[in-house]
Write a structure and sequence with these properties.
The complex is a heterodimer of chains A (about 170) and B (about 160). Chain A has about 170 residues and is mostly helical. Chain A is built from seven helices and no strands. In chain A, α4 packs across α7 and α6 crosses α7. The chains are: A mainly alpha (about 170), B mainly alpha (about 160).
């Protein structure tokens, strides 16, 4: 198990971003706190020794993702983690820009939880496709396509939102 | 589908996150709608992170999680020791069985001259007194284990 000093530093460094990540899926603050604490607890119990700093972080994110998936499944078994709605195939051409004042929070909430996870890990945390595959538990080759779909969908929501705001 | 994928996307995302654009990537961005879109998403996500930073609660003291994990680790080790003790009981039970058998075997060979002149004397014991001594040692060990604190908790 990681010694207390190292864990303290790791915790201080990763807690805010991990909380932000979990909060994308678990809106209830108390539940979000619980998931984050449980993720750190399981990390301490099960993380293999001698992991590099980046591997430690991705290991923690993998645990958190699994916890969030479990919470999501127990809440609504019908909804699939990586479910996509029918209109996903109707993707628009890439937009040239995203204006300021776009409600990115709302657009993110419109994505499926799995897509939110992919977008966050890729564009906020900056993980490589291989690492994302390990964290979310899909094949590495699938991440590129899944991420592309998620990105396309988010861009569509953002551009729709921009259009709506311009009209009003 | 390939219209929505670009080999440069990973490099563009890295550049957008660090805001360190090389001339090649910047010129690529002018011509590639996919990478432009990815860069825009990164910018939007940065806005989101900044906007939501105030919602993130202050980092709690990690000591509680640390203590909980340490305690769980100790319990796990203790449970492993208990399982090993149970295994030791089983081994002792077999050893006692062998000891008793040998003891009886050595007694019967003394009382039966035909047995004692057997060309295959007790292979396990090698003598009349070894069996009883082994039996006594096993019994003492078993008693000691039964009285040990870990064994008490197991049962």
């Amino acid at each position: 198990m990681m010694d207390e000093t190292r864990f303290r530093a790791f915790y201080q460094e990763t807690f805010p971003r991990l909380w932000g990540y979990v909060h994308r899926f678990v809106m209830e603050r108390a539940e979000c706190d619980d998931v984050v604490q449980e993720a750190f607890f399981r990390f301490l119990r099960s993380a293999p020794p001698r992991l590099s700093a980046s591997d430690q972080k991705s290991y923690l994110y993998r645990i958190a993702t699994n916890l969030v998936k479990d919470a999501w499944r127990s809440r609504s078994k019908e909804q699939k983690w990586l479910a996509e709605q029918d209109d996903d195939d109707q993707v628009s051409e890439p937009e040239s820009g995203i204006g300021a004042g776009i409600d990115i929070t709302r657009a993110m909430a419109l994505l499926s939880p799995g897509q939110r996870s992919l977008v966050w890990l890729a564009y906020v945390e900056g993980y490589e496709h291989r690492e994302i595959a390990e964290i979310v538990g899909v094949k590495s080759a699938s991440v590129r396509v899944l991420l592309m779909r998620a990105r396309r969908r988010l861009a569509k929501f953002l551009s729709d939102d921009k259009g709506e705001k311009l009209e009003t | 589908m390939n219209d929505h994928l670009c080999e440069q996307e990973a490099a563009v995302v890295r550049a957008a996150r660090s805001n360190e654009w090389g001339p090649i990537l910047r010129s690529h961005l002018d011509t590639c709608a996919v990478c432009r879109e990815a860069a825009n998403i990164v910018a939007a996500m940065n806005l989101l992170v900044v906007a939501e930073a105030s919602q993130i609660p202050p980092t709690p003291d990690p000591r509680l999680v640390w203590l909980k994990a340490s305690f769980a680790g100790r319990q796990r080790r203790h449970s492993l020791i208990s399982r090993l003790a149970s295994l030791a009981y089983s081994v002792l039970a077999v050893a006692i069985g062998v000891g008793v058998f040998s003891f009886i075997d050595s007694r019967s060979s003394r009382s039966d001259p035909a047995q004692s002149s057997s060309p295959f004397p007790s292979l396990l014991m090698g003598g009349d007194f070894v069996g009883p001594i082994l039996f006594m040692i096993c019994a003492i060990l078993l008693l000691a284990l039964l009285m040990s604190p870990s064994a008490k908790k197991t049962h």
